[in-house]
């Protein structure tokens, strides 16, 4: 038990020091239906395009690489009691479901239920873009506005053992559900 905690702490410290972590830059209030925007790297190079689909019954965003190939799709699930969004892979197969799990006064908890693999949990303040995504207590991604002075911009760090397309899509889904009117 103590060794497991020590291993988890060591892995999370390695993440915090940037070992194998990929850095992305994203825009706040970016998920308006019909709006397109880019997800950039540290140097400002466009890596992924988020394409908002207007005039649909469901809120839908397609995430494409810079060559225009779809890597993931995020869409709302209408007529559900709990707010949730599905994530599909490039072939249209559901790979995850993002759901709000618990509402608290200062922190929200979200779950990313993966079709294959362990579920992910989201801890922190999603409204202010200050949260982490964990798998079994190990940090695999972190979202923060602290890294940028530019208004309406926040960072997303994803660790080496995470599926980047799923985490990027989950971040788009969480942002859409946390800021529904933006």
In short:
The chain is α+β, with helices and mostly antiparallel strands and 182 residues long. The protein has helices at 2-16, 164-178, and strands spanning 22-27, 36-40, 46-53, 60-65, 70-76, 84-89, 94-103, 108-114, 120-125, 130-135, 138-144, 153-158. A hairpin with a 7-residue loop joins strand 5 and strand 6 (84-89).
Explain this structure.
There is one protein chain. This protein has 182 residues and is an alpha+beta fold. The protein has one domain: Tubby Protein, Chain A, CATH 3.20.90. It has two helices and twelve strands. It has helices at residues 2-16, 164-178, and strands at residues 22-27, 36-40, 46-53, 60-65, 70-76, 84-89, 94-103, 108-114, 120-125, 130-135, 138-144, 153-158. It has a twelve-stranded antiparallel sheet with strand order 1-12-11-10-9-8-7-6-5-4-3-2, sandwiched between helices. Strand 7 (94-103) and strand 8 (108-114) form a beta hairpin. The longest helix has 15 residues, at 2-16. It is globular, with a radius of gyration of 16 Å. The mean pLDDT is 83. InterPro entries: LOR, LOR_sf, Tubby-like_C. Belongs to the LOR family.
What is the annotated CATH architecture?
Alpha-Beta Barrel
Task: Based on Cα principal axes, name the global outline.
Answer: globular
Largest sheet: 12 strands, antiparallel
Q: Mean pLDDT score, rounded?
A: 83
Family: Belongs to the LOR family.
Protein name: LURP-one-related/scramblase family protein
InterPro entries: LOR, LOR_sf, Tubby-like_C
List the helices and strands and how they pair.
Blueprint: H1 2-16, E1 22-27, E2 36-40, E3 46-53, E4 60-65, E5 70-76, E6 84-89, E7 94-103, E8 108-114, E9 120-125, E10 130-135, E11 138-144, E12 153-158, H2 164-178
Antiparallel strand pairs: 1-12, 2-3, 3-4, 4-5, 5-6, 6-7, 7-8, 8-9, 9-10, 10-11, 11-12
